[in-house]
Amino acid sequence: MTPALRFYTASVDFDRRLRLEFHGTRITSDAGLLAYRELDGALGLTDLAGAALSECRRGWNTRHLLTGLFRQSVFGRLAGYEDVNDAERLAHDPAMRAVVDRTGLDRQAASTSQMGRFETGWLTIKANLAALADLSGAWIDRVHARRPQTTIVLDMDSAADWRDVLEPVVARYRSGMKRRYFRGDAAYANPGIYEFLEAEGYKYTVRLPANAVLQDRIGWLLKRPVGRPPRDVRRYYASFSYQAASWNKARRVVAKVEWRPGELYPRVGFIVTNISRPPERVTLFYNQRGAAEQHIKEGKNAIVWTRLSCRRFAANAVRLQLHALAYNLANFLRTLTLPNEVSHWSMTTLRDRLVKIGAKVVRHGRSITFQMAEVMVSHDLFQQILDAIAALRPSPLPRC
């Protein structure tokens, strides 16, 4: 049943000619979600989720399909609605109803109570929680199937148990990647990690905490340069073989010493590595892990994946996975479809400019038209995105 068409009016005093009308079911501020839904359809991502999740409801009277509820959770987070508190209003939004399923515009989407039961009840069962945890990897595999990759770089932040985090990822990409790299901070300065990565054929760079033995090996670089203090930054590099007491063999260590104007002591860093490149290139490669820190920051700011306000651990685990899936879908659109002139857009910029497009919904017989505003995103730019998405669709099977 089509939702009732209600609208409210208001006026402003600075210009009496202006009349404000609020058409909640015919106008949306999130029409850009249709581009993300098109990408989702081309790659079959939420359909993959619907097949992996277990239906916990009993009986035939299920108003909303499981895949539709999942889409509403993920696409709501893409649009900046980080929990279910806004579901009551989003249930009437035409863009949200359109992305849920083909019949969405003929009825309202799920309410706050329905979404709450879905996220904190149905998805928290053991089988669904395990399926959610595997979905991000499955989505990435689906993208790699359309755009094959030969190189993988794992950038990892601190983790309580590195085996629980690292081993499943390494196992997933054991056979598909020819060149495999790992970058980690000082929390991963563990001989067990070095041995594991070497056995798996990974090239690695890991920050090594300084100690007296390491500093003694580069003592000649720690002496202040003779003469007037330089006005620019001076960087010096060294490379040597080193074996700690807990290591089973000697490994290469790269040192970087940086003298900065106005600072009394140099900045010193050590990296343990099995890469044979010059020290400058090893350091440059390691420093690129800073991009991973930016990705984490984007997730916090644009997707707000720190919004975990449930009382139960399992419910918060579900919501964190949903936030991660929303981030991955947004990142797929950014890396696979954006034209060069806007490829630098951040997640926040994408949400503010692409997702937040105002549109009016007009029905013409069997067709439904979204009359979209053309302010931050032009028709040409939106069409280029749609064309790039179309190129990701699998080729149709030849007719017999």
Task: Tell me what you see in this structure.
With 400 residues, the protein is an alpha+beta fold. The protein folds into two domains: 24-127 and 298-390, no CATH class; 186-283, no CATH class. It is built from 15 helices and eleven strands. The chain has helices at 33-43, 45-52, 66-78, 87-90, 94-100, 112-120, 126-146, 162-172, 191-199, 212-217, 279-287, 290-303, 313-337, 347-355, 379-390, and strands at residues 7-11, 19-23, 27-28, 151-156, 179-184, 203-208, 234-242, 251-259, 267-273, 359-364, 367-372. The chain has a six-stranded mixed sheet with strand order 4-5-6-9-8-7, with helices on both faces.
Tags for this model:
single chain; 400 residues; alpha+beta; six-stranded mixed sheet; three-stranded antiparallel sheet; 11 strands
What is this structure's SSE topology?
Blueprint: E1 7-11, E2 19-23, E3 27-28, H1 33-43, H2 45-52, H3 66-78, H4 87-90, H5 94-100, H6 112-120, H7 126-146, E4 151-156, H8 162-172, E5 179-184, H9 191-199, E6 203-208, H10 212-217, E7 234-242, E8 251-259, E9 267-273, H11 279-287, H12 290-303, H13 313-337, H14 347-355, E10 359-364, E11 367-372, H15 379-390
Parallel strand pairs: 4-5, 5-6
Antiparallel strand pairs: 1-2, 3-10, 6-9, 7-8, 8-9, 10-11
Helix pairs in contact: 1-15, 2-3, 2-7, 3-5, 3-13, 7-13
